[in-house]
Protein: Monoacylglycerol lipase
Organism: Lachnellula occidentalis
Amino acid sequence: MTSSMLNVLFKYVCISATMGIALYATFIGLLTTPSFQAHVVYLHKIQMTWFKDLDVPEMFGFLYNQVKPFSIKVSDGEALYAWHVLPLELYREHEVSLLDEPSGFVSDITSTHAFKLLRDDPEARLVLHFHGAAGTVGSGYRTPNYRALSAGQPVKIHVLTFDYRGFGQSKGAPSESSLILDALAVVDWAMDVASIPPSRILIFGQSLGTAVSIAVLEHFALQSPPVLFAGTVLVAPFVDVMSLMATYRVAGTIPLVSPLARFPRLFNYLGTFVRDKWSSKDRIAHYVRANEANGHKYRLTLIHAEDDWDISWQHTPELFWHAVSATAPAGITYDELEEKKDERRKDLGAAGSFMEWRTENGVIREEILKYGLHDVIMGYPVITLAVMRVFTAADLSFR
């Protein structure tokens, strides 16, 4: 290769590097603006249900009228698009009546046969499903997730899922405060409209939905009197937004903000512009501490797959530590908990491992799977089993 060719190649590399640095600097600059941040954090404009009509759940593999679309009003005037998913065996038992009703979106969910099956059954259980970033109630692995949630008791376990404001057919713009408001409206609907007592409600969150779920738990635990649910299952949670930014890589390979984490001052300065903190580590500690102080029963399950490309599985042990530490008046260090894990952790080989931390009031369970990725895991039997553990622990007669 001649010197002139080397000079051209060197010039090309320099120009490409300069352009890359300029584009990355522009991206970082845009991240300091709230509107761009919202699109990056929530990805709410990415629907992932193109060419399908959410008002026709049959397009997503459900039986005729197994899913009833409707809306839930929020205190600030917004309306959330929601699905009520009937468990399969209950559907079979009432198939004739369900086939007599028109399918699709209803303005008054209380007039439907499916709603009455939920409200009027004293043995009915309800899973409130808080989904992750991007997509809608019908996207990707969420539909098999609804089936897994009710598979343990396909006569009794209903699922209520919804799109946060700005997602799918729910209008508005997402933010931390507004998503929490949305979630509280859904819980209120379950308790006040569907008349399901919190002891028969399980909170389920995945990815972003884990942060929303933990905010809900904290809110109701700090009420006077507190509201206590049957339990909570969190899949692929994260500690907080800054910790997520420090570890996140697109498809597990392409870093976005994580390179800046090598420069703490610069990274912390960028953090001053982050609007929505989603500090799950603090909220889960508040929740556990409140229940321990008041002597209230609670059950938390954290599940993560080691091959999760989106959110590093290492977030779960740290979040687990914050929850466990809150059970002790003087707390417990991370290293102390790791020593306890070495003693108590149950190794399941290729299936992963689990550990339970028990107190007089609660059970905090950490499950680390070897396989499951970020979304595929939602249809796994481990999800069905986690739900059944919660409901049977809350009521030993539930089978």
Q: What stands out?
A: Residues 3-31 form one domain. The chain has two domains: 3-31, 47-394.
